[in-house]
Every structure is written in C-alpha cells, then in structure tokens.
From TrEMBL:
Domain of life: Bacteria
Database matches in NCBIfam families: TIGR03089 family protein (TIGR03089)
InterPro entries found in the cross-reference section: Rv3268
Protein name as annotated: TIGR03089 family protein
C-alpha cells in the first residue's frame, strides 16, 4: 500500500522515512569529551518514549504549552520533537505566557524561577545519568521514567495554524516550522550557541533535507580531527 506522506502528522512525516535508518541523524559533542550518536532509528525511539511520557504523566495534548527551561542539548531536541508529536507549543521562559504554562521542562527543576502552580519535568543532561542527580524537588524525573515507556507512538494529525515554537519576540506555527526544507548539505556542524529558538527551525529544515547534524556544546574545540572524524561537509553560517 502506498502511503501519502503529505497527509501524515508533521513529526511523523519527518521521522517516518528515517525510522529504520542506522546512519547518523544527530551527533552531540560536549566539552568534557562526551560523544553521543543517535541514528534515525534511535532518535525516533527516544522521541516515541518521550511522547508517551508526556501524554501519560502530564496529559500533554494539542495546544498544550510547554516551557523549555533547558540549554541546547541532544535531549532538549528529543523533548521538543516529542512535544510536537502532540501538537503542543514549545515556549521559552521569556515568553509572557510562561508563567501560566502547565508544564516546565528544566535542568533546574527545584529553581525558584519556576511557578509553584506548574508541573515540572526534571532533566539531567549528563550522558550516563539514569536519574536526576541534583535537587529534583517535587518534579518528575525524566531520566528515571523515560525508559519505561513504549517504543512506539501513534500520533494524530495536528492543526497547521497551531503554535509550535514561541518566544517573547517570535512565533512559528506548525505549518511555518515544517514547510521549509533546507538545501541538502550532508553532515552539518552546528553550535549550541544558536539557542533553541534558532536551532530548532534549522534542525527541522535540514533533517527534512536528509542531512545529519553534529551539535557541539559550549567550550568544544572544533579541531580538524573532529571535522574529519564526523565527516562534516558544511557548517551553520553562524558557526
């Protein structure tokens, strides 16, 4: 049976063609030498587990607002794409509506900056952290919980006019975010200094083009060895 990909939910249309792919989709480098490689298959698996977690623990659904109080990291990309499976809005803490958002996702889950009325999901960004190692407060522990959820997620279509990504100064709908594939460039080096609000649209566009991303965290030295080892063929214009 032929599947019309134009009729699929936005995230399913993005991930479906690479679901069985063992080639790199996202590679993360941190300043302490951590290297995490996620193939299309592995990235999709993380997204599915996370989407199920968001639905079952927090009832995330279409038009839910999720505050991403996280730096750029491979886990924050997984969480954002999982939120979009539901048709939720990923918003930054500087957005005026963040104070009334139902869910905050944070690597500082016990921080006083998080409204007391919000549900909180704590995320430890350390590579091998099987649980949150700092002060979790009353938050749910992403690192502990996520592995228990199902490996597949079956999304429903979401409205293209809904807000997908919002900051204090800008907003992108689902149609705007997912309707601008980039130009295929191969394997692209990207710096975490872009910030979530700029990295996310760039990542979606280049993944739609079939590219892989090499994402480097703060303080990572870009050496010829790194570029050659990851077979980098292009850099983000601002890197």
């Amino acid at each position: 049976m032929t599947i019309d990909t134009n009729s699929l939910p936005f995230v399913e249309k993005l991930l479906g063609p690479r679901r069985a792919d063992a080639t790199p989709w996202l590679i993360w480098h941190s300043a302490d030498g951590e290297r995490i490689e996620l193939s299309g298959r592995v990235f999709d698996n993380w997204v599915a587990k996370t989407a199920n977690l968001l639905a079952e623990l927090f009832d995330v659904q279409e038009a839910s607002e999720l505050v991403f109080d996280l730096p750029v990291h491979w886990k924050s990309l997984v969480l954002a794409v999982a939120a979009w499976h539901h048709g939720a809005a990923v918003i930054t803490p500087d957005d005026p509506q963040s104070a009334t958002a139902a869910l905050w996702i944070s690597d500082r889950p016990a921080g006083a900056h998080i409204p007391a009325s919000a549900d909180v999901l704590g995320v430890d960004l350390a590579a091998l952290a099987l649980s949150f190692t700092g002060d979790l407060g009353p938050a749910e522990d992403y690192n502990t919980e996520v592995r228990a959820f199902a490996d597949d997620y079956y999304p429903q279509p979401v409205g293209g006019s809904l807000s997908a990504l919002r900051t204090a100064n800008a907003e992108l709908s689902y149609e705007q975010l997912f309707s601008h594939p980039g130009r295929a460039q191969g394997t692209i080096l990207v710096s975490s200094e872009l910030g979530m609000e700029r990295l996310l649209p760039f990542a979606i566009g280049q993944w739609q083009a079939g590219d892989a991303l090499v994402l480097v965290g703060p303080g990572v030295e870009i050496t010829p060895r790194l570029l050659e080892g990851e077979r980098v063929t292009a850099r983000h214009p601002e890197h």
